[in-house]
């Protein structure tokens, strides 16, 4: 079991993220740590600016909706390029912790999405969108935020990897079960889309990394920013597609997203504590449960529901990075304070 003061170096982060590659082989208070903090700070600002652009000039992105799955494929290919076989070895070495993280992720967030949509009386489109966010795999910046929180990054990488690989088998039936009462859900078509836009690009990236590793290593510092720009474009397209409805629905969607993310972080940490994983691992669990692959949710919502249903994913993409950075800073402060006692 890791001690409270132990900080795990995130080797080859595997989750879909705009910042994970910046966390490779960090040194305490070193250049990588500063780069990771910069990325976590800049990414939500970049996404917020993109969303504002889509809202102010929706005509700029007319007809871009069909490109969202391809843009997501670029993000997932970049994720695959950051992966190594070590990420999968970590799963075999800690099956209990990874299994608990996987169950917590795919039980807590989908359940919260359904409960929040019901409690707030959301329209069918928004309700389906919130639930779809909850049914997505672990997502944006979870690995690097775990690192900044002085959490167990190895566990974070393992949970993110498994949740992403299993997404084609888990996300569609969960969405059908929980969102089917609001809108028709074609689980088979959704599974095919996840295979094409998530799993195949990830596998392709991993293969390229294995074959051309030394060349890919030179690009690792560029990949997170390429992912960031791509996710920002996805958000701009999603917001532009539902610009007319945002003025009336934005406040309610923001409340739903804040509740969804906040409760996910808290319950994820609680799951780690109940599983007696220790504080660093519990911090990792918080972010692996509370942070979602909102790019995938936006892509699926646009393709299978409507641009309005993709709005919760676009808002989540901004908010969970802001909240994640704030919670990570608080957790890091508490951990450092405990070391001095």
CATH architecture: Up-down Bundle
Would you state the CATH class?
Answer: Mainly Alpha
Q: Characterize the overall form.
A: globular
The helicity comes to over 70%
The major sheet is characterized as: none
Number of strands: 0
Number of spatially distinct domains: 1
Structural class: mainly alpha
- Provide the succession of SSEs: HHHHHHHHHHHHHHH
Strand proportion, as a percent range, falls in under 5%
C-alpha Rg (nearest Å): 18 Å
Which stretches are poorly predicted, pLDDT < 50 over at least 5 residues? 1-29
Number of helices: 15
CATH third-tier fold name: Na+/H+ antiporter like fold
| C-alpha end-to-end distance | 20 Å
Average residue pLDDT: 83
Structural notes for this entry:
The protein is mostly helical and 341 residues long. It has a single domain (20-340), classed as Up-down Bundle (Na+/H+ antiporter like fold), CATH 1.20.1530.20. The protein has 15 helices and no strands. The protein has helices at 31-56, 68-81, 85-93, 95-120, 124-135, 142-148, 153-165, 167-179, 187-211, 213-217, 223-241, 243-274, 279-290, 294-304, 311-340. The radius of gyration is 18 Å and the shape is globular. The chain starts with 30 loop residues before the first helix and ends with a helix.
């Amino acid at each position: 079991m890791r001690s409270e003061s132990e900080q795990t170096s995130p080797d080859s982060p595997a989750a879909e993220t705009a910042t994970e590659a910046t966390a490779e082989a960090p040194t305490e208070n070193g250049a990588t740590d500063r780069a990771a903090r910069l990325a976590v700070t800049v990414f939500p600002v970049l996404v917020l600016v993109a969303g504002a652009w889509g809202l102010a000039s929706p005509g700029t992105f007319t007809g871009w909706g069909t490109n969202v799955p391809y843009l997501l494929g670029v993000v997932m290919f970049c994720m695959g390029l950051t992966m190594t076989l070590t990420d999968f070895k970590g799963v075999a070495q800690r099956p209990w912790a990874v299994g608990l993280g996987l169950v917590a992720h795919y039980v807590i967030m989908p359940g919260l999405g359904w409960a929040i949509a019901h409690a707030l009386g959301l329209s069918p489109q928004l309700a389906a969108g919130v639930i779809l966010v909850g049914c997505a795999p672990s997502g944006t910046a979870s690995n690097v935020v775990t690192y900044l929180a002085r959490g167990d990054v190895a566990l974070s990488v393992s949970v993110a990897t498994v949740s992403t690989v299993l997404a084609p088998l888990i996300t569609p039936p969960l969405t059908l079960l929980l969102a089917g009462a609001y809108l028709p859900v074609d689980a088979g078509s959704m599974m095919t889309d996840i295979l094409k836009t998530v799993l195949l690009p990830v596998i392709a990236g991993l293969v390229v990394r294995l074959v051309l590793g030394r060349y890919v290593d030179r690009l690792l510092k560029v990949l997170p920013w390429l992912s960031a720009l791509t996710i920002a474009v996805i958000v701009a397209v999603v917001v532009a597609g539902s610009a007319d409805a945002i003025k009336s629905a934005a406040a309610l969607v923001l409340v739903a997203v804040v509740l969804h993310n906040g409760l996910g972080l808290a319950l994820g940490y609680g799951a780690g504590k109940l599983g007696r994983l220790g504080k660093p691992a519990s911090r990792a669990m918080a972010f692996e449960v509370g942070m979602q692959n909102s790019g995938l949710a936006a892509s699926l919502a646009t393709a299978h529901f409507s641009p309005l249903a993709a709005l919760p994913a676009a808002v989540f993409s901004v908010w969970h990075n802001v909240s994640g950075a704030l919670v990570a800073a608080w957790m890091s402060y508490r951990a450092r304070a405990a070391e001095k006692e």
